[in-house]
Amino acid sequence: SKIRGDTVHEQSSVEAMVLEMQDSKSGVKSSEQKLNITSIPHVVTGQDILAWIANHMKVDAQEAQTIGTMLVAYGFIYPLQDHKKLILKPDVSLYRFQTPYFWPVQKWKADNTDYAIYLAKRNIRKKGTLDVYEQEYYKNLHKWLNHKWDFIVMQAKEQYRAGKERNKADRVVFDCQERAYWIVHRPPPRTHSAMDYGVDRLIDPNAEENKTFDYYRRIIIFTQQAIMRSKVKSTVSLGAILKHMTTYKDHDPFLAPCLPSNPWQTDDSSYWDLNMRNVEIPTKMRVERWSFSFFELLNDPRGRTDFKVFLKKEFSGENLAFWEAAEEMKWGTASSISEKAQTIFKTFLAPGAPRWINIDGRTMGLTVKGLEHPHRYVLDAAQTHIFMLMKKDTFYRYLKSPVYKDIQKKALSPAPHNFTPSQLEQNAQNRKPGINPIIIWQQEEEERAKAAAAAGPIDIKKLMASKLDRK
Amino acid sequence: MCDQTFVAITFGPCDSCSQNKPLMNIYLQNEPVNYCSLCVELMACQGLAKGETVSTLRAESENLKAKLEEERAKLHDVELHQVAEKVETLGQFVIKTRRTLKGHGNKVLCMDWCRDKRRMVSSSQVIMRSAAVCVLQEHAVTMPCTWVMACAYAPSGCVIACGGLDNKCSVYPLSLDKNENLAAKKKSVAMHTNYLSACSFTNSDMQLLTSSGDGTCALWDVESGQLLQSFHGHSADVLSLDLAPSETGNTFVSGGCDKKANVWDMRSGQNIQSFETHESDINSCRLYDLRADREVAIYSKESIIFGASSVDFSLSGRLLFAGYNDYNINVWDVLKGTRVAILFGHENRVSTVRVSPDGTAFCSGSWDNTLDFNPV
């Protein structure tokens, strides 16, 4: 038997609700209705079901509609008319509560053998009543289940015979119930059934785990380190979450209007054009965001460029250059690691290196030793040290610097758009996908190559001279 | 800093076998040690010592779990709703669907945004790469397997990755030529022993993180297809993963059918935090505070009977968009815990919800074969 992981747990509350709906006193009003020439008991209308749900769950009509449709899509309620559409119609359309025997069952999927028997039975009853999609299924089932076809036909005949022995009203009701079950579990084309659950899960999440001694050992190992892991008080972390949300509130397009306008709403792409990766003059909002954290500044290519302008003036570009080189190694291909490690050592870490970075002796020692057998994370300690240095010192000096103040002054503050309906229509007709990211990537690669070539061998004397000047 | 993992030593000589390997930081008799994953496994499977039985080990694990709860409780000095009291309530939200992509002839299972904020990749049995803004399908690749449950757009915008029932994650370089057959340049990167449920590029096109029905997650080198790190700890299918946006980028979280959300250190493969929900809690969304190591909020309503399949935050983190199996999308105020909007646009379950990289819109994909784009 196959395992479903999705809708397993939602059912007990649904089942409870469905039973309540059938209560003779407090449930949905039901009556006997004539279907063709037979009288069917316990029939309810769509609008009565919806009214009951709205009242009972204290929700509005739209939400009640959602819940009602779920009940039909899962097969707890079935339509008597237009039976292939698994929705709850908010009118006098007729529905019945499905018998618990046919309720969606948690642990197993509706069996192909049972479906074959059902289709065979319908064929026996009256040839030519199968829909096209059912005929397709029947053909395939005959192929897949060929080895047990005799059994299937025998079962179908037996069920057909047993059915004939019921009285007409009962038989009509049972046929409706059975048909409804199969619409849900083998939906016709363009019918959305909630029992369409997707892929079978490999491991049954409800099965008891095999609790051998190593199972408990692993829990012990995990829990010990979890206990020792440093944590902070909720006032601190929740306070930080609150601060983050408050800081970013005006930058969240769902909470504050983005200027000049949200391209999805007005079909005008100015907002995106003004915020391109390496635009010359950024917007005021973007420049403000750089001040929120060092991470924000570095993450925005335009911000990082501006930071580099500041570093150049301070002759302290080596820290960021080292950090970038370390990032490239960390996220690069496995095959390039040892080559990059060598270059980084020669450029930043070796005694007398042209762009020597100033890290504490212990970290330097560990890093250099690690570089003897370089691996992806060998520069982690050094990289973190440099990052924290830049974050705690350089970043704040940048924010107070003429470079930052200058870009703040130059930054753009676009006025909000005010499009007329006909302008909006025009905009919609002129929608474009924007420049292909592949082209931007190629352009940036070219620039990177140019910059690397221009960097060339560094004039150490010149660099040392300028460093002495600063001191 | 939110990410404590940067202080950990995650590579070097193992304290047990002395080999240079990725290291897990664990405790032996309350003393910190660094063991490689093999030595940790050996330790776990070591035969019972004198006086040890399965019962004594069970008792010890129960004690430790209780102690962890005690430690967590000590930090529980304020509730989220108390902190949220000082904050203004959000106004009424009107979210309209502005675009609908209808090209998929099948259930949409997954989607991912391109960093250019307007293009995306989506998967059903077919992978479609489209410019969502003008509802323009630019590329389509038919996959040999019927369920492509995972797809991802690379940071450069030049490559996409996808996989599903074929148990693999393959990478497709994109092309400026609309008529080029992308399938010809396909490259298999990840191999699992069961279906692929989710995939994501890390900070570059060179590494791929995957999760699988086989209960594991894995980190791969795209160029060589080499397995860089595997992550074991879930006891059932892993269904989703997400990378931390932290400045040091070392952790990710995975969600599994074993009702656990596990936080992992990418470098060592160590499971560093874990959050578990109970059987009856399946139809709620929960918020976990990683620094305080506890659950801080539950987002649910009595009228929401069916579970959520996919969630994403708005740019500031104040709003949580969640797609449900009852075909709707509920939008929650993360701080106040209230629902601020509900969207009824789909005709079948919502399988994926993702906010665009600049937060201007979110996309919802559904088993009704469509993708909707919704700004405010």
TrEMBL record, chain A:
Key word Magnesium present: no
PROSITE patterns for this protein: DEP, RGS
InterPro entries: DEP_dom (IPR000591), G-protein_gamma-like_dom (IPR015898), GGL_sf (IPR036284), RGS (IPR016137), RGS6/7/9/11 (IPR047016), RGS6/7/9/11_DHEX_sf (IPR047017), RGS_DHEX (IPR040759), RGS_sf (IPR036305)
GO biological process, one term: regulation of G protein-coupled receptor signaling pathway
Keyword hit for Cytoplasm: no
Keywords on record: Signal transduction inhibitor
Pfam families from the UniProt entry: DEP (PF00610), RGS (PF00615), RGS_DHEX (PF18148)
Domain DEP: 24-99
Record domain RGS: where: 293-408
One annotated GO molecular function: GTPase activator activity
GO cellular component: a single term: plasma membrane
SUPFAM superfamilies: Regulator of G-protein signaling, RGS, Transducin (heterotrimeric G protein), gamma chain, Winged helix' DNA-binding domain
Protein known as: Regulator of G protein signaling 9a
Organism of derivation: Pygocentrus nattereri
From TrEMBL, chain B:
Biological process per Gene Ontology, one example term: signal transduction
SUPFAM superfamilies: WD40 repeat-like
Superkingdom field: Eukaryota
PROSITE patterns per UniProt: WD_REPEATS_1, WD_REPEATS_2, WD_REPEATS_REGION
Signal sequence range: none
Coiled coil regions in record: 54-81
WD repeat residue numbers: 189-230, 231-274, 310-342, 343-376
Alphabetical keyword list: Coiled coil, Repeat, Transducer, WD repeat
Protein name as annotated: G protein subunit beta 5
InterPro entries: G-protein_beta_1-5, WD40/YVTN_repeat-like_dom_sf, WD40_G-protein_beta-like, WD40_repeat_CS, WD40_repeat_dom_sf, WD40_rpt
Family to which the UniProt record says this protein belongs: Belongs to the WD repeat G protein beta family.
Pfam families: WD40, WD40_Gbeta
